[in-house]
Design goal:
With 442 residues, this protein is an alpha+beta fold. It contains twelve helices and eight strands. The protein has an eight-stranded antiparallel beta sheet.
């Protein structure tokens, strides 16, 4: 009996896969692309929306870490436990103090308190919760659709489906070496159907590599335990610091301060740049100091770490990425590849364009399909008409946005007046009740 011969799916099969994925979840791909692209410049946008977070004329040296931490504790005296100080990426930036599980957002998947501190004056400038600002809200939309754990898992699955969609699209596009240049021609005179197809094919070919990498890394960021299993590593999840280390020293009246712990840790990596410091919790807690070596591609979350005992002032453990296994090194690349950190400023901008291209791919592919099933008539492409249409659309959008803004302002004024009246009436009622109560008591 002959064994059945396994055959790879044919092009018509892959075309159906590509089409059905686009029609079913293509809109979610586009949403993830747009929100991801904008989130790449989260810090810059946050600075524009909140100018007080930008130090225009930085002067002098940073205040001591102990003084900065004392200011944070003074601003939030009832928040006990560990705090993490994140150093700014530029001289104009603020130090951010992170408190992982505040009571206000304790039951949310991820909503820490973010306290912005001026490093030159140790002044607490602003305190905000993750997810309550425009940029963090948008990033939550990208990572979990604002649906907590269910959304997180759904985004991971969409990352896997996006990888299949991009791979099938690349396979369908490939014309052979001799005809590659022909596939980049855009024939706007051949009608709307051909024009949208050429746009879709050209964008897909140009962004395929970037989109495949983004889909691959995004999938593993949603399922870090799977990545650790495949690479035989542990503690490599984004934001994780390896295994938990506790103090074995006897508590005393002369604990090591935060600044002193930093100096002790700096001895292990004298040329490394300080990125984060975490304060200990309880008697067994320990300082964790996070550095970035010049050889690391991770900018915001490098893996170089030193643990310093609060009671003895001694180094308990060191984690050096230069001694990572091949699997650990591979795992450490996932986050910087997804965010574009590994590629520098130019690469980050390419990633920005690649994310936006997902929306353009969705629109162009959808328009071609609608033309194909004759819901949209195939017509000549007129750039003059398109220019006129875009101008009209811009004017209409401006008028609509302006009217919405006026309406919101009017509603806010009415709401304020209503609340003021309600407060006035309630205060009078309370006075009357108090007066009647006193009469009855007499």
């Amino acid at each position: 009996m002959r064994k059945p011969i396994f055959r790879l799916p044919t092009k018509p099969t892959w075309l159906k896969v590509h089409l059905y994925l686009a029609l079913s979840v293509g809109l979610f791909f586009a949403l993830m692309g747009i929100t991801g692209s904008i989130s790449l410049y989260r810090e810059e946008i946050d600075g524009l929306l909140n100018p007080q977070l930008i130090i225009e004329k930085p002067q002098g040296n940073y205040q001591s870490l102990d003084k900065i931490m004392a200011s944070v504790h003074a601003a939030h005296p009832t928040r006990y436990g560990s705090w993490t100080l994140e150093m700014p990426n530029s001289p104009q930036g603020m130090i951010t103090a992170w408190y992982e599980k505040p009571t206000e957002t304790f039951f949310e998947l991820y909503a820490p308190l973010m306290v912005s501190v001026n490093p030159y004056t140790s002044e607490v400038v602003m305190s905000r919760f993750w997810g309550k600002t425009a940029t963090t809200w948008l990033l939550d939309l990208h990572t979990q659709f604002r649906l907590d754990r269910f959304g997180w898992n759904a985004v991971g699955m969409l990352g896997g489906l996006l990888f299949i969609s991009c791979g099938s699209g690349l396979y369908l596009w490939w014309p052979g070496l001799k005809a590659v240049t022909e596939t980049f021609k855009i024939r706007h005179k051949a009608g709307l159907m051909q024009f949208t197809f050429d746009i879709h094919r050209c964008l897909g070919a140009l962004n395929a590599t970037a989109l495949l990498l983004l889909a691959f890394t995004g999938f593993f960021l949603s399922y870090p335990s799977l990545l650790e299993t495949l690479t035989s590593s542990s503690g490599m999840e984004h934001g994780q610091t390896g295994r938990t280390i506790t103090s074995s020293a006897i508590p005393n009246n002369h604990p090591t301060g935060l600044q002193a712990a930093f100096f002790v840790a700096q001895g292990a990596f004298p040329k490394a740049k300080l990125r984060r410091l975490s304060t200990p919790t309880g008697d067994t807690g320990i300082y964790r100091i996070n550095f970035r070596q010049s050889s690391e591609i991770n900018q915001r979350h490098p893996f170089t770490s030193v643990w310093v005992d609060r009671w003895s002032g001694q180094v308990k453990e060191v984690r050096n990425p230069n001694k990572f296994t091949l699997g650990e090194t591979f795992a450490s690349w996932i986050w910087p590849l997804h965010t574009g950190e590994a590629l520098g400023k130019n690469g980050k901008f390419i990633w920005f364009l690649a994310g936006l291209s997902l929306f353009m791919l969705y629109v162009s592919g959808l328009m071609r399909w609608l033309c194909r099933i004759r819901l949209i008539k195939n017509r000549n492409v007129s750039f003059k008409a398109m220019h006129t249409f875009l101008n009209r659309l811009g004017k209409i959008s401006y008028c609509v946005i302006l009217k919405i803004f006026i309406l919101i302002k009017l509603l806010a004024q009415r709401l304020y007046t209503y609340l003021l009246k309600a407060y006035f009436i309630s205060s009078i009622s309370m006075k009357k009740l108090t007066y009647y109560f006193l009469i009855i008591k007499k």
